[in-house]
Amino acid sequence: MSAPLPYDPQRLAHCAGEIIVNVRELSARGWTPATSSNFSRRIDAQHAAITVSGRDKGRLTEADIMVVDLKGEPVATHHRPSAETLLHTQLYQRYPEVGCVLHTHSQTQTVASRLYAGAGHVHLEGYELLKAFTGNTTHETSLELPVLPNTQDMPTLAAQVDALLDHQPMWGYLIDGHGLYAWGRDMPEARRHLEAFEFLLGCELELRRLQR
Ligand SMILES: CSC[C@@H](O)[C@@H](O)C(=O)COP(=O)(O)O
Ligand SMILES: [Zn+2]
User: Fold this and answer.
1) 116 with 147: CB under 8 angstroms?
2) Where does the record place the Class II aldolase/adducin N-terminal domain (predicted)?
3) For 40, which of 86, 88, 113, 128 could close a Cys bridge (C-beta 3.0–4.6 Å)?
4) Can you give the CATH number for the domain in which 120 is found?
5) In a domain? residue 2
6) Is 98 within the bounds of a domain?
7) Does residue 125 form part of some domain?
8) Any atom of ligand 1 within 6 Å of the Cβ of 38
9) Angle at 122 between CA 121 and CA 125, to 5 degrees
10) Are strands 121-125 and 142-148 parallel, antiparallel or unpaired?
């Protein structure tokens, strides 16, 4: 007889279903080109469901979702988790209330990350859609979306994210020439943050083009 799983398989099936449905829609918008991007959902206090590395994110099935512990180690599987697993699990470790982390590579996110890498952040102000980050209370707020240097060294990248989180609350960041990470308490909130960042970055790029 095999050992019992250390997580609830029904909860995993629920999380995997949510990832599959939502990522299919994000992918249809062209935000996950060439197998890029990764997605996760908290299962419980010690486990998260995350996409297997290298899979076509536009065609995810349950076989493309696996379980890791919050150190990023595979649990009860021989699959290899996303190369960027640490960027997901660091958020689950740090914030018990975070339930979902979404990472995409849209053209808007990638171009914006390159344009604002020098400044180290994108300043977002004056937009109604900023209410997506304030619990819909006010648009009279501003937000700095950090832009981090890209590296394949995940502990280095995760340390930079941690250093930022020590000083400011935030719901996402860009990585230069790479893409966007966004998160939330659950899938709808993480998706709202991701979509708001995408829209606001698109507005900033368009404004820059028009003001040239
Ligand atoms: C295919 S290039 C993109 C990857 O290098 C990486 O940034 C990415 O987002 C997907 O990696 P993955 O290991 O499939 O989760
Ligand atoms: Zn990536």
Assistant:
1) yes
2) 17-205
3) 88
4) 3.40.225.10
5) no
6) yes
7) yes
8) yes
9) 135
10) antiparallel
Ligand 1 atom 4: residue of nearest CA: 36
Atom of ligand 1 minimally distant from the CA of 57: 14
Query: For the complex shown, is ipTM > 0.95?
Result: yes
> How many Å apart are CA 84 and CA 81, to the nearest integer?
8
| Per-residue buried b or exposed e for 178-199, using 16+ beta carbons within 10 Å of the residue's own CB | bbbbbbbeebebbbbbbbbbbe
| Ligand 2 center to 145 CA (angstroms) | 17
Averaged pLDDT, 29-58 = 98
Q: Would you say residue 67 lies in a domain?
A: yes
Long-range contacts of 28-36 (CB under 8 A, 24+ apart): 28/58, 29/106, 30/106, 30/107, 31/104, 31/105, 31/106, 31/109, 31/198, 32/57, 32/58, 32/104, 32/105, 33/105, 36/104, 36/105, 36/179
pLDDT value at 140 more than 90: no
Overall domain count for the chain: 1
Regarding the beta carbon of 160 and ligand 1, being less than 6 Å apart is answered: no
Any atom of ligand 1 within 6 Å of the Cβ of 150: no
